[in-house]
């Protein structure tokens, strides 16, 4: 039997019973669509978290005061006492390291901002001009803090979008004098809205020069030093150089914790990658179920078409021809189901993206390929048994059954 | 004398029914020459359908040899037997056995599709068969849109499309009224006149009487083997168990 004839014969046999074919294709399609949608969700979650982390900045090495013996990031780092402060001088010294591109010191405290009788509790971040580049922030209006001597900042502030809205409403904020704590500062810029993110919410932040912040809070220490390496491959050298410099400056004692953003990212990546795999595995079970359904339906089909198989044998069909015809049919049904499922799955993922624009629910390529491959594989694999049974039918028995 | 088309020697076919053995065919010896017109008759259970299945290579005997055109076909592999069925044997069934989802033309083309003939040659032969059997305006009808006579004509067209040497018909008129039945029989006889060997299994004495040779089966043996041009039947070719 020629291949085009075989395919046409199998197609006619499949379309000869639309209900059976439709149900089978639907079952296969649901399996494939489940894999596509669920992996899209899993991978979307992974990307979402990674995006949130990357939003902090890229190629970052973060220096925290205090030594965490176990290493890594630990919420305790934020509140433990440290024998030696992390100072602006430390931050400035880090600029000398060759693998370091930019350094931004960060002092944090809470204070009140008041303007025109309105009072609000805010988080005040003391930093330098480099901060906006290191953290990849966008300005909506005005300018950021000017570059210059870190120890002598002007009385200027950049405010978050939410602060602007709440304190000034529809009025112009740029150039206004406001009171932050006991200082009067002039607003020179407004940050663009970033939405809720991991880490601090820049919408509710007031950024002032680091010297001003330290004076305001009467403290010498920094909350963090953000170090941006020259590139992705420079992260490790930068970390080593930062470690050396700080050890030297702190009389041979490494009383700071240095973490790289990459390490945090990699952990989340692995974690959520495993989650996606697990979800894909669960969805794959539905594919296996669909495969068994294919087998069941094909077995019923063989039983129903016994007379036809006998006839084909009487007309000179070999066992191989019969087997191929049934295999072609189950492969065709699986293929149709896989394609339909792929389309449904992609449509489902698109709908999710439409409903939650911040959530990048794209199914990963490997999952799509694996789903299509598994669908075809199970279809053919589970088609083998019915096809062999059909091929083995004795023609005389098959014909006798009317 | 040339080798006969069919030569059965010592054919045994035993079915197991429960714990008893049923001899459907018992030490059967039959020779049929090319171009003969044979009616196989007999009561139910006499083994005539079994004989037809054996002749059509749909069934294998438990013992004995079957020579078709001088070639022992009982020892052939399943694939080779399928090839013989495809090229040398045509079947016509009582219940037509048309594939319901295929049109008349597609049903006729089925043996050629299975044999792997190229589509252009198939189309040509199907067109000729439709013309020969008066089915031109029924080509695109499905079996359920055809009358019984038309269905059987499609079935005969399908059985002869590969130009077989042997045409086996199992009660070809069994599901037809007398008029259409006669029409179908005339069609089969016309094929026989063209040299095709025709073997018809039937209950119908009238149909059987038209054949030039009658093989009357009883308990797995030909009780009577008579040619119309002979005055007396040949001796029974089967030794009955005593």
Write the SSE topology.
The complex is a heterodimer of chains A (402) and B (242).
Chain A: H1 3-15, H2 18-54, E1 60-65, H3 88-94, E2 100-115, E3 118-127, H4 131-134, E4 139-142, E5 156-159, H5 161-168, E6 177-180, E7 183-191, E8 205-209, H6 210-217, E9 224-229, H7 235-249, E10 256-260, H8 261-304, H9 306-314, H10 319-355, H11 365-392, H12 395-400
Parallel strand pairs in A: 3-8, 5-7
Antiparallel strand pairs in A: 1-9, 1-10, 2-3, 2-6, 2-9, 4-7, 5-8, 6-7
Helix pairs in contact in A: 1-10, 2-8, 2-10, 2-11, 8-10, 8-11, 10-11
Chain B: E1 6-17, E2 20-32, E3 37-41, H1 48-55, E4 63-68, E5 71-72, H2 78-88, E6 89-92, H3 104-115, H4 119-132, H5 148-160, E7 166-170, H6 178-193, E8 197-201, H7 205-210, E9 213-218, E10 221-227
Helix pairs in contact in B: 3-4, 3-5, 5-6
Question: Which key terms come to mind for this protein?
Answer:
heterodimer, A: 402 residues, alpha+beta, 2 domains, 6-stranded mixed barrel, 54% helix, elongated, B: 242 residues, alpha/beta, Rossmann fold, 6-stranded mixed sheet, 4-stranded antiparallel sheet, 7 helices, 10 strands, globular
């Amino acid at each position: 039997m020629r291949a085009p004839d075989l395919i046409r014969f199998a197609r006619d046999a499949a379309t000869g019973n639309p209900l059976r074919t439709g149900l089978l294709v639907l079952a296969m399609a649901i399996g494939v669509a489940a894999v596509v949608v669920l992996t899209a969700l899993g991978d979307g979650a992974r990307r979402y978290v990674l995006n949130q982390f990357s939003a902090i900045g890229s190629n970052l090495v973060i220096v925290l005061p205090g030594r965490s013996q176990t290493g890594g990031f630990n919420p305790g780092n934020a509140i433990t006492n440290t024998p030696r402060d992390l100072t602006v001088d430390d931050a400035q010294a880090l600029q000398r390291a060759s693998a370091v591109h930019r350094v931004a010191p960060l002092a944090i405290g809470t204070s009140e901002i008041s303007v025109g009788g309105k009072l609000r509790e805010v988080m005040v971040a003391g930093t330098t001009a480099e901060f906006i580049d290191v953290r990849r922030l966008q300005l909506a209006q005005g300018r950021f803090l000017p570059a210059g001597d870190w120890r002598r900042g002007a009385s200027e502030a950049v405010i978050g979008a939410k602060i602007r809205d709440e304190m000034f409403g529809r009025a112009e904020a740029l150039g206004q004098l406001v009171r932050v704590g006991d200082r009067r500062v002039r607003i020179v810029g407004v940050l663009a809205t970033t939405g809720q993110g991991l880490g601090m919410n820049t919408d509710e932040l007031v950024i002032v020069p680091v010297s001003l912040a330290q004076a305001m809070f009467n403290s010498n220490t920094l909350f963090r030093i953000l170090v941006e390496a020259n590139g992705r491959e420079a992260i490790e050298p930068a970390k080593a150089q930062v470690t050396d410099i700080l050890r030297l400056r702190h009389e041979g004692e490494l009383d700071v914790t240095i973490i790289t953003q990459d390490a945090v990212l990699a952990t989340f990546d692995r974690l959520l990658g495993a989650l996606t795999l697990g979800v894909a595995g669960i969805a794959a079970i539905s594919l296996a179920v669909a495969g068994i359904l294919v087998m069941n339906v094909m077995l019923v089909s063989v039983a129903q078409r016994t007379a036809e198989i006998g006839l084909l044998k009487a007309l000179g069909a070999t066992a191989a021809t019969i087997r191929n015809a049934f295999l072609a049919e189950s492969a065709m049904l699986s293929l149709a189901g896989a394609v339909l499922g792929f389309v449904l799955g992609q449509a489902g993922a698109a709908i999710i993206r439409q409903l939650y624009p911040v959530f990048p629910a794209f199914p990963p390529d490997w999952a799509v390929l694996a789903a299509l491959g598994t669908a075809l594989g199970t279809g053919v694999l589970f088609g083998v048994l019915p096809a062999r049974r059909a091929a083995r039918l004795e023609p005389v028995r098959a014909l006798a059954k009317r | 004398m040339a080798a006969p088309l069919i030569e059965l020697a010592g054919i045994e076919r035993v079915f197991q029914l429960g714990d008893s053995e049923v001899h459907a065919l018992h030490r059967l010896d039959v020779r049929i020459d090319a171009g003969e017109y044979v009616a196989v008759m007999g009561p139910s259970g006499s083994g005539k359908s079994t004989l037809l299945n054996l002749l059509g290579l749909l069934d294998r005997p438990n013992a004995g040899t079957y020579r078709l055109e001088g070639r022992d076909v009982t020892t052939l592999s399943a694939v080779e037997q399928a090839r013989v069925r495809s090229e040398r044997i045509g079947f016509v069934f009582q219940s037509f056995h048309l594939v319901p989802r295929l049109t008349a033309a597609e049903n006729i083309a089925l043996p050629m599709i299975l044999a792997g003939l190229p589509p252009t040659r198939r189309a040509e032969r199907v067109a000729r068969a439709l013309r020969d059997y008066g089915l031109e305006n029924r080509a695109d009808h499905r079996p359920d849109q055809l009358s019984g006579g038309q269905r059987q004509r499609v079935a005969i067209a399908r059985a002869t499309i590969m130009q077989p040497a042997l045409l086996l018909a199992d009660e070809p008129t069994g599901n037809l009224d007398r008029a259409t039945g006669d029409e179908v029989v005339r069609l089969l006889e016309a094929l026989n006149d063209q040299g095709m060997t025709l073997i018809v299994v039937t209950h119908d004495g009238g149909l059987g009487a038209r054949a030039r040779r009658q093989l009357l089966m009883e308990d797995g043996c030909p009780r009577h083997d008579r040619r119309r041009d002979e005055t007396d039947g040949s001796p029974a070719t089967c030794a009955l168990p005593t």
